[in-house]
Amino acid sequence: MKNVKIYLSEIKKQIEFFNGFVLMLDFDGTISPICSTPDEAYLPERNKFNLEIISRLFPVAIISGRTIKDLKQKIGINDFVYSGSHGLEWNIATLKKRKHVPRRILKTFKEIKIKIKKLLPRYPGMIIEDKPFTLPFHYRLIEPGQVPIFKRDVSKILKSVYNDKTIRVIDNKKTIELVPKLNWDKGDIVKLIYKYLQDKNKKRSVPIYIGDSLTDEDAFRVLKNGITIRVRPKKGSSAKYYFKSRAEVDRFLVWLASYCEGLEASSTKRHK
Ligand SMILES: [Mg+2]
Which of 183, 216, 224, 272 has its CA 20 to 30 A from that of 104? Predict the structure, then answer.
């Protein structure tokens, strides 16, 4: 993996070679700081400002485990491309689609949720989120010393799920989440969004994808010819580049926005 700070000119060359890019971003831990509870996460004003500048010239897509409704509320910009619920739903311009999730899976989630809820008195820091297609519960606020027993209790409940080939259990960033396994992940949705935008704009452009965690690896793999950046380096990651910290994402957006403003300025000069 290469440090973006050192290889910024290499990245710039790729953007210039393609004459543009499609910017695809994860939300939590990427453009938003990780907060104690999922509700507290927010898009810093400066990032919103820079993303608006960038989106005047190039498409911006947000891809997250959150629902689209939640993402739009947090971001407050309607005309980005959105994919939520780990790629299970997506909005591109007027196109609004979602994957069919078999009722059997949703029923299993409901049953598991009831059992997980019973752990609440023992682990009051746990947060169980209400989401339509997935079942996330967060343990960031559970006392660290209690986490191993908490996990043991959870795995007793999830025993049946571990053998279920239609459900994926993601344990990442102090969150355990049950997600329908439909042969469809962040990699598939990223491919779909990228292809759609290429066809629509009738020109080739380089994909830039930034993410910070396990599910983003699916996107990094699919976009191996693009500019893939992981927040914080990790051994075995499929991303080509890395940021040392999340704050470097903010600085990269400043750089990208000023690159876009430069393009805008030179094109108005040409038209004068
Ligand atoms: Mg993330």
Answer: 216
